[in-house]
């Protein structure tokens, strides 16, 4: 009898999360592994990759650190030909075309903004051969206001096998991303803590 009640209660809680969406994803470093993390979504915990520089309160361009911050999910990008689950979300998601880039030069007027390739300043190509950005959510780190050198392209995206370090982003498996996307909105905050 108690087990039946617990299952029903868990189903009701899951239904409430699905209806309201997730407000907070809490990320912390995995003990003893500063470039790997644990991402808590409701009562469920998933493995994730963090920046090669671990978590830092003093994030700088090129340091490879994941910012110690609360960052709202703004929007996202996905490869429809590789990650169909990118359509199943409340987020505004745009398709990644071959000409989509992200500027990473602090002195450029489009620093930490999407740009059209070819682009004169150094930029990251969003349509990647390694498929890390097949689903890529933009976090509001250093977006408004933008400060030179405080870091660019801090995303929530797909992880490499073995959760090898990112350049400062938070990354999860494609399966985890597909599970989370229907629960995320532009009100969801990714909170990186110590």
UniProtKB/TrEMBL annotation:
Residues 25-193 form the L,D-TPase catalytic domain. One of its GO terms (molecular function) is transferase activity. The active site is at 157 (proton donor/acceptor), 169 (nucleophile). GO terms for biological process: cell wall organization; peptidoglycan biosynthetic process; regulation of cell shape. Pfam families: YkuD. Keywords: Cell shape, Cell wall biogenesis/degradation, Peptidoglycan synthesis. Pathway: Cell wall biogenesis; peptidoglycan biosynthesis. This is L,D-TPase catalytic domain-containing protein. It comes from Mesorhizobium australicum (strain HAMBI 3006 / LMG 24608 / WSM2073).
